[in-house]
Amino acid sequence: MNKRGESGFTLIELLVTMAVFVLVMVAAANVLTGMITQFKQQSKIAESNIEGIVGLEVLRQDLAHTGYGLPWSVDVDGDGVANDWSQLTTYSEAAGAGAFNDGDPASPLPLPAGVRRAPRAVFSDDDTGMNGSDFLVIKSVNAQRTNASEQWTILKRAPFGADNPWTWTPAGQNLTGTDRVIVLNVNRRLMVNGTAFYTTYDNVTSRAPTDPTETYRLVYGLAPEAVGTPIMPFNRADYYISRPADISPRCAPFTGVLYKATLQANGNFTELPLLDCVVNMQVTFLVDADGNGVIDWPPVDTLVGLTAEQIRDRVREIRVYILAQEGQKDQTYDFSEGGTREYLSVTETYGADSRDVQGISNLNLKTLLGNAEYKYYKWKIYKIVVTPNNLR
Known about the structure:
alpha+beta; seven-stranded antiparallel beta sheet; 5 helices
């Protein structure tokens, strides 16, 4: 009987095969790790961009609505002199600690105790916040978004007021009976009852026009009953940067969150985070100070000291620049370009004129974050430019 031959792998062949297999696996793991790292980085960049698109659209809309439904004057005692803001005792802009209490003697924007004034549609104080950021305040009826604040109607004088107030169709888009509303005449004078600057929608006909020269008045929804008792004849939104204790771990040191804080009832803020990992926000204004129809140059960085009327007459454009982190830390990336780059700058232009935005161009990321940190992050400047057509 013939004996069948047997064959197999030698020990050396097995060792060589295993070594090759290990090398292939290590190479594949390195490629996979690189792909996963790149995917995470790109996904965080996409997340940052989505936050920027969604969050900053809220800011853009508020800027576009600056001054919408804002009263320009008030006549409390009925003497025909529209300068009675100091008699409107229920009107107060005092807010929580750290806020800009427009009119509070203890605030960075002081007025004498007890003095009230026509509301300024927009203002900003320069380099007062986190990392030298600006503090931006916007006032309008719909700066706080509610079902009430997004509605308006017309209050007509008899005999034009048979269907008073005028209502929308289809049903379901109207103000409800307990919604707080303000009433303005066509010249933006706040119509009051005693010192009460607001009323409820079910009582609005009591402020219908009676003067034969006045055909109608405007009714703006202010806030629903659930918000509480209004303290201002408008809504207000403050924009600022702050670093919360629970900030995202992907954010670089010394970065914060861009917040929108709405203010109405009881002087309490309701904060809404808009954008993570923000370093700095700067606000500038294009103005026509002398009323000649030509925008002055360069832009101004603050409106502190201007009255409500001056702001309405002079401000032609609002520009906001926000310096923020894009994505997450990446130790394979070098923002510094070999140690030669330490900040991002923006150049403002108008016609043939230009200048750097000093608050951003002089913000040294290397000094702020440290040489070992700042260069491992991507940085981006978001730019918002708005013409505030609701001021006038």
